[in-house]
Structure formats: structure tokens, C-alpha cells
Structures
1.
Amino acid sequence: MPSIERKFTLKVPSSTENLALIREFVTAVGRQAQLDEPEVSNLELAVDEACANVIEHAYGHDITKEVIVRAKFDDESLRISVIDEGLGFDPGNVDQDSVEQLMHDRKSGGLGIRLIKKLMDDVSYEIVPGQKNELHMTKKIRKS
Amino acid sequence: MANPFAIQTSLENNLSIVALEGFVDAHTAPQFEDAIQKAVDSGSVRIVVDCEKLNYISSAGLGVFMSFIEEVRDRGGDIKICGLTPKVKHTFEILGFQDIFEMLDDQQTALRRFSGS
């Protein structure tokens, strides 16, 4: 029997105050997709990091902008897309200094994207210049 | 929206204890940063961050540890982390914080580490 795809969308003003709402949204979707609790926690953190990047860097805390979180899942995988219309940011360009080196340089930036890459099974980025940026994060669903 | 966060700071035998409760994310991390900054500014560089009631931390909170640790150690102090729940500890460990920071089971153990016993 073919797997049914389910889709969800959350759109919130670009404020860090809304990170809690975003986390509740992805936690609910992750549980509905039957991820186990450690995987739900990983998903929650990865999406929080992605949205915080958008709010702080792509939109520069401009609350008139919107952060869009799209989720879809079937029996095989759950994909979350974080969409913004701000300044493009390619996670592939984040420097890969060790955490010790970042500490030495007193830099704390770049930790978020490292976490996203470690927490999710696949991460990709799509830029439509002048229109929108989409960060896609995929988590495979492992049935126990 | 529920985003409970509380922070309590105290001074005990010239040690600063910063107790975190709830969720540390990009919204609440600035309060954590302020607390550490105040401790450092007051000359207290022996700091225990008690995470027993911490439910969640994102990189914004981890970045606070990162941005102060070298200065604190350069001045002869340290930041020790205690009371981490398994879920929160996992977040620290993903980035290898266990190689940089001493993580103790509870506040008393962390305080004893500073006193050298």
C-alpha cells in the first residue's frame, strides 16, 4: 500500500520569542511521524537552530518578517524546510574550525549549523536569489 | 508562549553559582550571558553552572560557555558544569564540550572540585 504523505506549515513573526512555539510544532510533528523521543529531541534542536539563524542573521531581528517552517513525512522520512526571504546564508560556507579553536578565538558563531549537520541525516540549501532561501533537513524514520 | 526560563545567582566562599532552569535558547541566552558577565566583572572567576533544572539548551546557550571560558581560565578560574540531565548532556557532547569543560554530577561535587578536595 502506498505511503501517505502528510504536510504541515507554521508561519511566525521573526522573533526569538517564537522559538518556543516552533519547537512545540516540530515536536508534535516528530511524534506524529513516530520518531522515538531522542530523535524528536534532535529534531527540535536542529529546527530551533535553523530558525534562530534566520531570525538573527537573515532577518536581523526584524519582527515584520516571517519565518516559515514546512514539515512533511511519510513512512520513510520526515523533511523540515525552514524558509525565509532574508539575506542568504550557505551553511556549506561555515568555517570548520574545531570547537577548541573557536573557543580560543572567542568565537561562538557556527555552532548552530554544526549541530544541525550532526543531528539530521541530510541537510541541503536552496537559494532563489532575491526571493527566498530554503534550508531542507531530513530525518529518516527508523521503525523499531 | 511557554518558554519558561529562570536564572539564580549566588556567591558562596568566593565561588559564583549560576543555576539555570527551563529553556536556554536564542531568546533567553542573553540573560545567562549577563549573569556570567556580572560574575566575571565582579572578579569572581570560579563559576559553577548548575543545570539540574535545565530542560533544554541550544547553541545560543553553549556559546555563552564558549565565549567566557578562556578569559576565566586566563585569570586563574574555571567554569564547571553540574547536574546535567541525560538529554541536555547529549547536546553538550555532540559538540565535544566534555573535552573542554568539567562536568560534575551535582553542585556539591562541583564546589568540592574548586576547593581541591
2.
Amino acid sequence: MKYLLLICGESYEAPEGSDDDSVEKTIAWAEDLDKRGIRLVGNRLADAATTLRARDGEVLVSDGPFTETKEQILGFDLLECADLDEAIEAASKHPWLPHGSIEIRPVWPV
Amino acid sequence: MAGLSTDAAVAAFREEGGRVVAALIRLTGDWDLAEEAVQEAFARALERWPRDGVPAKPAAWLTTTARNHALTRLRRSSLESAKLREVATLGAPEEDVDPSGVPDDRLRLMFTCCHPALPLDGRVALTLRTLAGLTTAEIARAFLVSESAMAQRLVRTRRKIRDAGIPYRVPPAHLLPERLSGVLGVLYLLFNEGYAATAGDSPSRHDLCVEAIRLSRTLAALMPGEPEVEGLLALMLLQHSRRAARMDADGELVTLEDQDRSSWNRPEIDEGVALLDVALRRGVAGPYQLQAAIAACHATAPTAAETDWPQIAALYGELARRVPSPVVELNRAVAVAMAEGPSAGLALVDLAAESGKLAGYHLLPATRADLLRRLGRRGEAAAAYREALALAGTEADRRFLSRRLAEISDAD
């Protein structure tokens, strides 16, 4: 099954006081999953969101992420796993996890 | 003879049903199909065992029959052939190497079922349905929701299992703690269903209580130092200690107030109280410890009149703060009524009723009726007793309420 990991948090910056080697650690995490053959694609997202809405037949373009909360999607990874437990195991090792949260969504099967 | 083999089928189902369902889930990966196939196997056992005799290995017979049924169903719906081959070639499923260290098969299956990616209510309900064999109606009553709402919840939970790809796999030992709350919920409701059966002629199903206590003991040994495990076991022991006094010779329910306290089981009370002391000393209170503390107040009162009602009311207040629930509020109302008088209690009952979440719960009008009776408001009390009668699920409850209704009607 394919699972999309949505890496969420308030900011790209690691909180003060923590080691700011999260980029290196994340690269190592991704390489590990690549070696296991369960990561299909993934990347950090640029902090430049544009949101579309359609109201009364008109498409409205606005700046910023659609979420009302402070948390936003900072990155994503698409995994191919046997089941949810494998996806949880892989995601639980993401170095960003202590600073935010990771939502695991199964991709609609085709 | 027929009766004996029917008993054997019921016993085999009760003993092995959960294991057979689990085997079928592992085999087919389909919870609905697994459950249906096992029900079908049970129906065949009821039909054939009286005729052909009880098979030498009842559980294996049930598994094979269920597997064949599942196979037929899969063929009919022409699912992918790989799954079909898998089901067709596997005999009795081999026991995998157990990574959990849980020493009891049934408890291990409960941990397997209580996956943390499922909503807590759904996980508990599905485990009760799949492994403990409780009916959807019984589980609905335990959660105070309608049968159709509970059926929906079970459907949604099974759908999440399928859509999210949640495996039915025994968890490794280090992942047991995150599943503990679900397993405790299952054991608690299993005991409750046994202690106060919500439907049928018998007011209790003693076998469920004994099994829930046995599994809780196993759990306490497996995870020593978990205060809520100790609290739950203490709660069960304290409740169970009263079983001989809860019914009179005619099978009628006896209220706590009127019970013969000398027939309470002392060793169980002593063990429950000691366990609770150990748990509370760990300094992390929780809902099961609080309920055990309430049960201990009752169990250690020499007479009904000497019950420490203010303490019980305070404990219910603390319980309501941690797990807000209209049922807890109703119980607090009863305790307040005993501590401060029936009118103070009645005000709280009406407050709990306002939430609307207790609609259809017979103990709401029954409690109101009792308080109104004690206030001498007999007409209103009689109306409330009639309302409770219409909602009560067991014969014993109905007889008790009828008796009370007759008493206040006779008093005129």
C-alpha cells in the first residue's frame, strides 16, 4: 500500500536550544528508507503556499496555507509499505517528529 | 444427548470462538468475512454435533468449517486468486513466534485487536464483538448508544482497518503499553456485562466475570507496577465479592442497602483493598482506581448506615472531572442524596438528564423514582418507575422495579 507522510509543524526552524542538524538527520533518514526500498519520493516544501478556492463559480487565489491553525505542511514523503505498522515504524524515526507531527494518509488505491 | 452436544458447541464457541475468528482474520485479512464465517461454523456445529456427535477437536473443527465457508464466499465473489490460494492451502494456521511475551492466548489477541490507530471506542467495541463474542446490542448498551449507532461505529472501525491497511499482528512487547488503555476498557466492559447482564433472563453471566478477573490477573503479572491495572483488578474483586448477596433465594435483585453483608466474600474484599492501597501509593490516580476506591468504601462499611457517603460523593466528583460522563453524574447524584438528602440528589439527577445522553437508560428514571419515593412524591415516583420499567433490559430489573411500583401504589 502507498502511504503519504505529511510532515507538519509550525516552522522550518528547529526550536531554540535543540541541535540544528535536522537537515542532515532528515537526509540520513530518507536515505535509510530508500535503501529499504519503501520510499518512493519525498521532499521539503518551500514556505510559499498559494491556496485556491472556488466560490460562486469564481476561482479565488490567496496567499498562504489553507489551514487556520499555526501548523502547516512542511514536507512530504510517499512510501510503499506492506501495512500501516511499517509506515508508522518508518515515520516514527523522522528527526522532525519531536518538533511537530506527522500525518499518515493511505493513498486511494487504484 | 442433543442437549449435551449443544452445550459442547456453546462451550467450544465461548472457549475458542475468539481464537477461531483471529485465525480467520489472519487468513483472509477481512474482518467481516471472518466473523461471518465463524458464525456460520457455529450454526453448523449446532446442527450437526447433536446428529454426528461432538468432534474430537471442537476448535479445529470450527476453524476448518469456518475456513471452508470463507473459501466458498471468496470464490463466489471471485476475489483475487492469490488470496484464494492462500486460504485454500493453509490448514490450521500455525502459531507464529510470539514477540509480545503475553502468556495468555486470549489476552494476546486482545492486544492484537486494540491497535492504537483505531479510535479508542471503536477498538474496544470491535474487540468485544470479535473476541469476546458480545452482541452489538450488548455493546451498544455498554456505551449508552443505540444499536444502529453501535453497528455504524463497528462498520467505520472495520473500514479504517481496511482503508488504512492496519495489520492483524501480535505487537512486540515494547508496543504493549500504548495498547493498554484499550485492553483495560475491554476487560472492564467484559466484567460489567457479566456482572449486570444488559439483556435476557439472567441478571448476571458469572463466566464473563470470572474470565475478566483471570485476564486482569494475568495482565497485572505481565505489567507489574501499572496502577490502573491494579486499580481495575481491585475494582473487579470488590464488585465480585458481593455476588452471593446480590440476589435472594428467588433470584430477585437485592439493593446494596438491603444486602446481607456477612455473605460478602471477605478474602476478595481484603485482596481488593490491599491491591488498591498498593496502586494508590504509586501516586498516579486514574478512573479505575477511583472506581475501586468507591467500591472499597462500600465493601468496608460494617453496615449500610455507616457508609461514608460524603467520601463517595467526593470520589465521584473527582471521577467526573477526569472522565466526564452522565452516568458518573447520576451515580454522584445518588451519593449526594445519601450524604445531603434526596432533594439535593434529585437536583443533580435532573441536571444529568438535561444532557440528553441518558435517554433510554433505565437507571435514570429508576434513580429519579427512588428519590421521589423517598421525598414522599408518590405520584411522580410511580410515573418514573413505569418509565424505567419500559426501558429495563433484564427480567430481574423489571421484577425489581415492578415490586417497588407495587409498594408505593399499595401505600395509598
